[in-house]
Design brief:
The complex is a heterodimer of chains A (797) and B (340). Chain A is an alpha+beta fold and 797 residues long. Chain A folds into 6 domains: 62 residues, 2-Layer Sandwich (Phenylalanyl-tRNA Synthetase, Chain B, domain 1), CATH 3.30.56.10; 115 residues, Nucleic acid-binding proteins (OB fold (Dihydrolipoamide Acetyltransferase, E2P), Beta Barrel); 197 residues, Phenylalanyl-trna Synthetase, Chain B, domain 3 (Phenylalanyl-tRNA Synthetase, Chain B, domain 3, 3-Layer(bba) Sandwich), CATH 3.50.40; 66 residues, Phenylalanyl-tRNA Synthetase, Chain B, domain 1 (2-Layer Sandwich), CATH 3.30.56.10; 196 residues, Bira Bifunctional Protein, Domain 2 (BirA Bifunctional Protein, domain 2); 84 residues, 2-Layer Sandwich (Alpha-Beta Plaits), CATH 3.30.70. Chain A is built from 20 helices and 39 strands. Chain A has a 7-stranded mixed beta sheet with strand order 27-31-32-36-35-34-33, with helices on both faces. In chain A, strands 3, 4, 5, 6, 7 and 10 form a 6-stranded antiparallel beta sheet that branches. Chain A has a 5-stranded mixed beta sheet with strand order 12-15-18-19-20. The N and C termini of chain A lie far apart (94 Å). With 340 residues, chain B is α+β, with helices and mostly antiparallel strands. Chain B folds into 2 domains: 90 residues; 228 residues, 2-Layer Sandwich (BirA Bifunctional Protein, domain 2). Chain B is 41% helix and 19% strand. Chain B has 12 helices and 9 strands. Chain B is rod-shaped and about 130 Å long. In chain B, 44% of the residues are buried. Classes of the chains: A alpha+beta (797), B alpha+beta (340). Chains A and B meet through helix 7, helix 10, helix 12, helix 13 and strand 27 of A and helix 5, strand 1, strand 2, strand 4 and strand 5 of B.
Chain lengths: 797, 340
């Protein structure tokens, strides 16, 4: 809401207050100021001038040399404009002058002839044809005879340009403040200034003609229309509004159109009551019906857009058609035009939610709808209507037909609340007395009798003790509340073990050189193609956003690998070397029942390239498992996950539970991201790791007796996994086996194709004695036997 | 014989003392003089030819000579060792300005860094961390929070919808409602997490960002308590000298509501680029929990009162670290992340 301070002064004053002080205090009392603008600040030294005489420039066929009376003197100005004549009153920029757009006017010569300034056009003064309807668009602004006595005056005074506009951000609970009067009330209480709104008076035509001769109104759907008031104006002369009115609208940021339309806008801005004006001649019949639209009913709004209505929307209809979308916009069929002679002024109160839905469905948020949707005061209708008619008379825009239509089916009862002084003080942590609270509330136009507060109807936001407390404290000052400590039961606080585990895992990952990333939870469904997720994969069924910003962010991810690969690709493009990343990502798995919320699962994704290989990423994962105390995880080779290299991918199990998948990204997947370097990635279920985690610490005594070791080296098929061999050896070694470790692996010509040479060391130890050579040999033989028997391996020397 | 012994001694000591004598030469000298076939041994072997009177005298001299040579050799060894160590140390001198070989340490994402900071501050004041779904029911995101359908307050939070009843939460506040439904006072929770709003991405907007919500409900909680707690928070997060300022505002789920500014931590309130000359920076929204919200969650507003506050994690991170573009957080360029 843009507030003209000049307009504000019709109802209160800000004498002795600087603009800065005004803005600060208004913000402190709850009307947030976004900023202010001193209008015309960029126009300096432009005066009302009279062209005394003109002659052609000797060296130009389009320049004129004008002798111009600027009040204090007659000066010479050269102009190229062709619409100026001797005797015209014009704006003249007198050096050194400033014009909007950082233009400075200095004295100079135009083709050798001295020019002490510049005659100005409307655009040079930052005005438009709406502000100055009779002006010449591509010539000098000719001010007309009314300015004859203003020669020498500053143009800002003459054109009423000097005003200060304060921009307020009005919260949705205070539609009453979307008006000059509402803000004047707030101003008055904030600065302890007088406040009064003169009651509008209408003389009326007094010719015996009556509104009943023109109009009847019926509200068919009173659940959506609380009040409908109307007056008729005849003998209308459509014309531009007077300068003062145009300039007030301009200050408020509203474009002047013509007197009738301007009056409706003026009243809306002043009273906060949206108005509508119909051309009476365009109505079919004289009966107005406020009804729900029919499904499929067609309507052309006055901005010439076509709409298909439905029965949730309210229209103002004549006997044949909808003439306005209630509270949103009028119809093209009854628009005020230059030839309009009879006007119906509507001042009504519609249901907020209904107007909001209607405006939204039709994509037409207007000044009117944005006020109605916040819930307006039906008691404000009549004042607005009378004010509009008063302006009609003031502007001589027509004759107000006697009589008023006012359909007001249910007058709302006044809200009465208790004034609970002690409770409010306790709640706020202040000590204010009854008299103070009463005086604040009364200045806000509440009636206070004893401990009863009658809330004014324009303050529908006041419904309970908290609301009253806020009114009192915002005027008293939020910042006068003393800070206190909570006096209550203590609470333990802290993270749950699972939350702490997440923090600990993060710390461990930083320690392993992984940088943390955060990526969007919504992705493009194409991301599933990029990681080569099978067409029939259930993971392609995502939670879909019905109104996404774009396809790129249209579904909630069911896997987090694509997000990781996007980031990896980006870092490769940035030429960042040796990158190791992780994300604690959430994935969203839809429920079969679409009315239920999806499962939100946490996954740890890893991504790395550079000095990395399959075993470095595996090492990071093993560390994570160790951190979780998961000792018996199994790594199972996996060749059926299309995102990964079929020979360099593994699934991790704890028992039967899948903890995750990792490996080298498939070259075809990498290619989809424009990546040609090997990339390693992992997707681990944080939730499953947590479920499998065992972080109890139980000290085991250090061994008292020395260990014995036996080495085994042999050649085997490439396909035989080290893990399988280790399992056989450990099982064979039985209770005495402390560890089986691969310590060498070798491939080469000597070994033969499809073969590898491997060497293991088995550590044997008994808790209660030093093992004898015989005991160790016995174990050793059992291992050899099992290797041969179970795996067909014959061990070399 | 005496002369021979003295000559051997003089020769030996000179040879040992010679600067040319290194470890090997020293060993050779030891063998030459003291070895089984050495000169001194040879002299001692000839002692049999001496008279009984001379023998002990010469014997003593011979022992003294041996001892002296041995001592000289030992001393020389010490010197040589020291010299060798010196030489080794000299040879091993390193250029300490060459880069260290470090095990790479990963970096926190700045949003996590700030979030954990905030969490830790409130955990220290007895708060627990409550979590709630990001894909949420309209009921918890709006209705339970006193924002009925078609309420204009919904306009300030352009919301992504999944179905008519399910949406991407536009604030972390639904966790308040969920917590109050499940837990009776005393309640002291914070709830950090992702929220979603239909804002196109630019330098200051992101359709996804992080908030942290706080909620306290108990008997006798006052607005002064809210101020006190936020003051403590601001001082801990932004420095001991930080002041806070409340400005009245409107949130449907709190009443009274406030926007809270902190004194600019860069200029201390004098006005600078960071605070746009204001001296104050808007940092969070707060207020006393609306009785309708308490009632919606089954808590009697006649018995209990409470306060709630919420802040944007991105905003705090951007202010604290002078980050000029919110998109950096989600680009995940390691050159950005590794600054934190």
């Amino acid at each position: 809401m843009n507030l003209s301070l000049k307009w504000l002064h019709d109802f209160t004053n800000t004498d002795g207050i600087t603009v800065k002080e005004y803005c600060d205090r208004m913000t402190d009392t709850g009307s947030k100021v976004e900023g202010y603008e001193v209008l015309g600040d960029d126009i300096q030294n432009v005066k009302v001038a009279k062209v005394v005489s003109m002659e052609r420039h000797p060296d130009s066929d389009h320049l004129w040399i004008c002798q111009v009376d600027i009040g204090s003197e007659v000066t010479q100005i050269v102009t190229g404009a062709q619409n100026v004549h001797a005797g015209d009153i014009v704006p003249a920029a007198i050096p050194v002058a400033h014009l909007p757009g950082d233009i400075t006017i200095k004295a100079g010569k135009l083709r050798g002839v001295e020019s002490n300034g510049m005659l100005c056009s409307i655009s040079e003064l930052n005005l438009t044809l709406h502000d100055m309807p009779k002006a010449c668009e591509d010539g000098i602004l000719i001010l007309g005879k009314g300015f004859e006595d203003k020669v020498g005056m500053d143009i800002k005074d003459a054109l009423l340009l000097n005003d200060t506009v304060v921009e307020f951000e009005i919260t949705s609970n205070r539609p009453d403040c979307l008006s000059v009067i509402g803000l004047a009330r707030e101003t008055a209480i904030s600065f302890d200034k007088p406040f009064s709104v003169p009651a509008p008076t209408v003389k009326g035509a007094g010719d015996g003609d009556k509104i009943e001769n023109y109009l009847s109104v019926r509200i068919s759907d009173s659940d959506l229309c609380y009040r409908y008031a109307a007056k008729v104006v005849k003998n209308v002369k459509i014309a531009p509004s007077p300068l003062w009115l145009r300039m007030r609208l301009r200050a408020a940021g509203v474009r002047p159109i013509n007197n009738i339309v301007d009056i409706t806008n003026y009243v809306m801005l002043e009273y906060g009551q949206p108005m509508h004006a119909f051309d009476y001649a365009m109505l079919s019949g004289s009966a107005i019906n406020v009804r729900r639209a029919n499904d499929g009913e067609l309507f052309k709004s006055l901005d010439d857009k076509d709409h298909v209505l439905d029965s949730t929307m309210l229209v103002i209809a004549d006997e044949k058609k909808a003439c306005a979308l209630a509270g949103v916009m009028g119809g093209a069929n009854s628009e005020i035009k230059d030839g309009t002679t009879t006007v119906v002024f509507e001042s009504a109160c519609f249901s907020g939610p209904s107007v909001r839905v209607t405006a939204k469905k039709n994509g037409m948020r207007t000044e009117s709808s944005s006020r109605f949707e916040k819930g307006l005061d039906p008691n404000n209708c009549m004042a607005g209507l009378l004010r509009a008619c008063q302006l009609v008379e003031e502007l001589s825009a027509g004759d107000v037909v006697d009589g008023t239509i006012d359909v007001y089916p249910t007058k709302p009862e006044a809200v009465v609340l208790p004034l609970e002084v002690d409770k409010i003080n306790k709640f706020l942590g202040v000590e204010l007395d009854y008299d103070y609270m009463k005086s604040v509330l009364e200045r806000l136009e509440c009636k206070v009798e004893g401990n009863e507060i009658t809330v004014p109807s324009f303050r529908a936001d006041l419904t309970c003790m908290n609301d009253i407390a806020e009114e009192i404290i915002r005027i008293y000052g939020y910042n006068k509340i003393k800070s206190t400590c909570i006096y209550a039961e203590t609470t333990q606080g802290g993270r749950t073990p699972k939350q702490q585990f997440e923090v600990d895992l993060e710390e461990a990952l930083y320690g392993m050189g992984c940088d943390q990333i955060q990526t969007f939870s919504f992705i493009s469904p194409k991301y599933y193609d990029k990681v080569r997720l099978p067409a029939d994969s259930s993971l392609r069924k995502s939670v879909v956003i019905s109104n996404p910003l774009g396809e790129d962010t249209s579904v909630m991810r069911t896997i987090a690998l694509p997000s990781m690969l996007e980031v990896i690709a980006r870092n490769i493009n940035f030429s960042n070397e040796n990158v190791r990343l992780f994300e604690m990502a959430t994935v969203y798995i839809p429920d079969e029942d679409a009315t239920k919320l999806p499962a939100e699962n946490k996954v740890i994704t890893l991504g790395m390239y550079g000095d990395e290989d399959f075993y470095t990423i595996k090492g990071v994962i093993e560390n994570i498992l160790e951190k979780a105390g998961i000792e018996k995880a199994k790594f199972v080779s996996c060749s059926d996950d299309a995102a990964y290299h079929p020979g360099r991918c593994a699934r991790i199990y704890a028992g039967e539970t899948l903890l995750g998948t990792f490996g080298q990204i498939h070259p075809l997947t990498a290619n989809n991201y424009g990546i040609s370097t090997p990339v390693y990635a992992a997707e681990l279920s944080f939730d499953e790791i947590w479920n499998a985690a065992d972080m109890t610490i139980d000290y085991k005594p250090l061994p008292k007796f020395p260990a014995t070791s036996r080495d085994f080296s042999f050649i085997c098929d490439e396909d035989l996994e080290v893990g399988t061999i280790e399992e056989v050896m450990a099982k064979a070694a039985g209770k005495l086996c402390e560890d089986v470790k691969l310590f060498d692996i070798f491939r080469g010509e000597k070994i033969g194709e499809g073969k590898k040479s491997v060497a293991f060391r088995v550590i044997l130890r008994a808790p209660d004695r030093t093992l004898t050579v015989e005991e160790a040999d016995k174990v050793s033989n059992k291992i050899l036997k099992d290797l041969s028997y179970k795996l067909g391996l014959n061990i070399r020397g | 014989m005496k002369e021979t012994l003295n000559r051997i001694k003089a020769e030996a000591l000179e040879a040992i003392a010679s600067p040319e004598t290194d470890d090997a030469a020293l060993e050779a000298l030891r063998i030459k003089y003291l070895g089984k076939k050495g000169e001194l041994t040879a002299v001692l072997r000839g002692m049999g030819q001496l008279s009984a009177e001379e023998r002990p005298v010469v014997g003593q001299i011979a022992n003294e000579v041996r001892a002296e040579i041995e001592a000289a050799i030992t001393e020389k060894k010490t010197v040589l060792k020291a010299q060798a160590l010196d030489a080794q140390l000299k040879a091993e001198k390193l250029d300490v300005t060459v880069d260290g070989k470090k095990a790479k340490v990963g970096h926190r994402h700045p949003l996590t860094l700030v979030q954990r900071d905030l969490e830790n501050i409130f955990i220290g004041m007895g708060f627990s961390i409550a979590e709630g779904p990001e894909v949420e029911y309209d009921y918890y995101n709006f209705q339970a929070l006193n924002i009925p359908e078609n309420h204009p307050a919904r306009d300030t939070q352009d919301t992504f919808y999944i179905t008519d009843n399910i949406l991407l939460r536009s604030q972390t506040s639904p966790v308040q409602a969920r917590t109050m439904e499940q837990q009776k006072p005393p309640i002291r929770i914070i709830s950090p997490g992702r929220v979603y709003r239909s804002d196109a991405m630019d330098a200051t907007h992101s359709p996804l960002f992080h908030q942290m919500e706080g909620l306290v409900v108990d008997k006798g909680i006052t607005m002064g308590d809210l101020k006190g707690m936020l003051e403590t928070f601001a001082k801990t997060e932004f420095g001991e000298d930080t002041k806070i300022r409340f400005r009245p505002h409107h949130f449907p789920f709190t009443e009274p509501s406030a926007e809270v500014d902190i004194s600019c931590f860069m200029c201390g309130g004098k006005g600078c680029r960071l605070c746009k000359g204001e001296g104050w920076i808007e940092i969070l929204g707060a207020g006393m929990v609306h009785p309708n919200v308490l009632r919606n969650c089954g808590i009697d507003p006649e018995v209990y009162s409470g306060f709630a506050f919420g802040m944007g994690v991105e905003r705090i991170a951007m202010l604290k670290y002078h980050i000029d573009d919110i998109r950096h957080f989600y680009d995940n360029d390691v050159r950005f992340i590794e600054q934190f």
